[in-house]
C-alpha cells in the first residue's frame, strides 16, 4: 500500500510539472502574438499619420500657390507667415486659402518647418519630425517622390511657380516643378 501511495504522489507531481510547462508554453505563445499585434497596430497608425501628413502638406502647398497666384497688383509674392494663408493681409476683406493651420501629424505639434522663397516669404513646408518614413518611392501616384527621404523632415511640400527657374547658381531648393499643387490621396475626403 505504501508503494501505491508513493506512486500516486509521484504521478501527481509529474502531472503538475507538465501542467506548469504547458502554461509557460501558452504564455510564451500569447506574448509573441501580442507583440505581433502591437507591431502591426503601430505600423498601421504610422501609415495613417503619413497619409495625414501628405494631405496637410498638399493643402499647404495648394494654399501657398493660391496666395501667390492671386497676388494683387501683378506683383506676385509668397506669404510671409503661415497665418497669412488664413487671412490674406493684402486685401481689406477676408480671403482664406486654408480653413485652418493643420498640425504636423508626425509630431502632433502645430509647428512646421518652412522653406524660404527668394523673396523671403514661405514657398513650402515640411515636418519637423526626424522619424523614419514607411512610404517609399512611387508610393503616392502622381505626387511627390519621397523615396530618398531619410526622415519626415525630408518630405518637402513646395510650390514652385513657373516664373522661378532653377538655373545654375540658384539658391532655391531642388524641387520637381512638375508636381501639381494638390494630388488625391486614396481614402481621404478633401
Structural description of this entry:
This protein has one domain. Strands 1-2-3 form a three-stranded antiparallel sheet. The chain contains one helix and three strands, in the order αβββ. 36% of the residues lie in helices and 6% in strands. The longest helix has 68 residues, at 2-69. It has one helix at 2-69, and strands spanning 113-116, 122-126, 156-158. The protein starts with a helix and ends in a 32-residue tail after the last strand. With 190 residues, the chain is mainly alpha-helical.
Helix content: 25-40%
Shape: rod-shaped
> Can you write the helix and strand succession as a string?
HEEE
**Percent strand:** 5-15%
Distance linking N and C termini: 84 Å
Mean pLDDT score, rounded? 78
Number of strands: 3
User: Which structural class fits the helix and strand makeup?
Assistant: mainly alpha
Uncertain regions spanning at least 5 consecutive residues: 167-190
- Whole-angstrom Rg: 28 Å
Q: What's the quaternary structure here?
A: single chain
User: How are the strands ordered across the major sheet?
Assistant: 1-2-3
